[in-house]
């Protein structure tokens, strides 16, 4: 038998009943039921319930076990009673009676519990990251990240791309943010830079005649954090193609993204028909080049209705070259309280204010304010 395990903690099923097996993992939880000790043993793959009673030759040692002790056990697989079957885990039909035990690593009282979903301050989680990463939610997140990257790689290879790694230590080639600098040992007083993106290197690859390139590329930028990236480094799917136009890029990346989201979206379907919006229209309708299309509201240019009108604020603005008036329809925003809140938001963003118009039904006309 292997020195540490014959099976993982997700392998055993009712077919293994009667077998002598060996498991290694961490003590997830200990339950004492009147002298009968139950232990949830956890490894990277899953959980197995193991148990021990006073008839076991290692009962005294098992009594000493605490959460997050790393152990190896030998035991016999038994079927659980029908009323004790746990359908939530793959090993829920069996349990293992402990015959032998080896403590591989004992643990003192923990500053952060792995069992359960308790909330801890971020400082505590980062200080004891090795414990935080043992928690079920973090384990799932890390596994999913790895699986998503593997899925993207497969999909790119299936479309004829080849993956090439580009250098990390390089000369500075500033882009949109500050570089991270690395002092040179061989040339005192001079520095290398970490690449903000593999831009120059991938262009060298393409002009060298490689037709389709991709890379899950690290990007290092000394900038403030954003909603979709960390403050120091992030990874992106980077690709280049030769002898193509813009539509070829769209047609290549669409099945990759839709496929990944469907594969890891928990059964949710992704609309395969992508609406294509020009940059000009996106800026006009949404004021952003990456709009959230779940929001059906579009801005509209209404300059012609105010040019030369008696609404002096807008009319005077339109006398200045390059200005226009845009309206944002708000079907359920017809209250003074709502408009005051939006006006305050506009002023907070550095604007002098925001005009609004109420349209009334049944021939009541309209009410305007600036």
Plain-language structure description:
The chain has a 5-stranded mixed β-barrel with strand order 1-2-3-5-4. The chain has helices spanning about 60-65, 120-125, 130, 135-160, 200-205, 245-265, 280-285, 305, 310-320, 335-350, and strands at about 20-35, 35-40, 45-50, 70-80, 95-105, 160-165, 180-185, 190-195, 210-220, 235-240, 300, 325, 355-360, 365-370. By secondary structure, the chain is α+β, with helices and mostly antiparallel strands. It is about 25% helix and about 25% strand.
Chart the SSEs and their pairings.
Elements: E1 20-33, E2 36-42, E3 47-52, H1 59-63, E4 70-79, E5 94-105, H2 122-127, H3 129-132, H4 136-158, E6 162-163, E7 180-183, E8 191-194, H5 199-207, E9 212-220, E10 233-241, H6 246-263, H7 279-286, E11 300-301, H8 303-306, H9 312-318, E12 326-327, H10 336-348, E13 356-359, E14 366-369
Parallel strand pairs: 3-5, 6-9
Antiparallel strand pairs: 1-2, 1-4, 2-3, 4-5, 7-8, 9-10, 11-12, 13-14
Helix pairs in contact: 4-6
State the shape: elongated
Number of helices: 10
> Got a strand count?
14
Average pLDDT, all residues: 91
List low-confidence stretches.
Answer: none
The main sheet orders its strands as 1-2-3-5-4
Helix content: 25-40%
Q: What distinguishing features does this structure have?
A:
single chain, 370 residues, alpha+beta, five-stranded mixed barrel, three-stranded mixed beta sheet, 14 strands, elongated
How would you concisely characterize the structure shown here?
With 370 residues, the protein is an alpha+beta fold. It is built from 10 helices and 14 strands.
């Amino acid at each position: 038998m292997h020195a540490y395990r014959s099976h993982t903690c997700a392998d055993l099923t009712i077919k293994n009943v009667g077998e002598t097996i060996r498991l290694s993992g961490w003590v997830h939880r200990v339950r004492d039921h009147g002298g009968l000790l139950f232990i949830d043993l956890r490894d990277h793959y899953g959980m197995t319930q193991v148990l021990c009673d006073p008839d076991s030759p290692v009962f005294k040692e098992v009594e000493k076990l605490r959460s997050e002790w790393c152990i190896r056990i030998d035991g016999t697989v038994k079927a659980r009673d029908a009323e004790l079957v746990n359908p939530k885990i793959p090993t829920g039909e069996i349990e293992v009676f402990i015959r032998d035990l080896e403590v591989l690593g004992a643990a003192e009282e923990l500053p952060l519990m792995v069992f359960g979903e308790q909330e801890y301050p971020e400082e505590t989680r980062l200080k004891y990251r090795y414990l935080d990463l043992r928690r079920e939610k973090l384990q799932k997140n890390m596994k999913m990240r790895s699986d998503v990257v593997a899925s993207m790689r497969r999909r790119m290879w299936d479309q004829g791309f080849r993956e090439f790694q580009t250098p990390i230590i390089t000369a500075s080639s500033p882009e949109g943010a500050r570089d991270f600098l690395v002092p040179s040992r061989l040339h005192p007083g001079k520095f290398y830079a970490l690449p903000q993106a593999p831009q120059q290197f991938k262009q060298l690859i393409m002009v060298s005649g490689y037709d389709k390139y991709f890379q899950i590329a690290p990007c290092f930028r000394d900038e403030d954090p954003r909603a979709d990236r960390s403050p120091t480094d992030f990874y992106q799917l980077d690709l280049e193609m030769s002898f193509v136009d813009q539509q070829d890029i769209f047609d290549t990346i669409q099945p990759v993204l839709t496929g990944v989201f469907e594969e890891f979206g928990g059964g949710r379907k992704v609309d395969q028909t992508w609406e294509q919006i020009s940059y000009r229209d996106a800026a006009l309708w949404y004021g952003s080049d990456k709009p959230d299309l779940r929001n059906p509201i579009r801005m509209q240019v209404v300059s012609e209705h105010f040019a030369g009108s008696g609404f002096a604020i807008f009319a005077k603005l339109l006398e200045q070259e390059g200005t226009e008036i845009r309206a944002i329809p708000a079907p359920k925003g017809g209250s003074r309280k709502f408009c005051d809140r939006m006006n305050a938001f506009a002023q907070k963003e550095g604007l002098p204010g925001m005009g609004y118009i109420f349209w009334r039904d049944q021939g009541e006309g309209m009410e305007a304010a600036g």
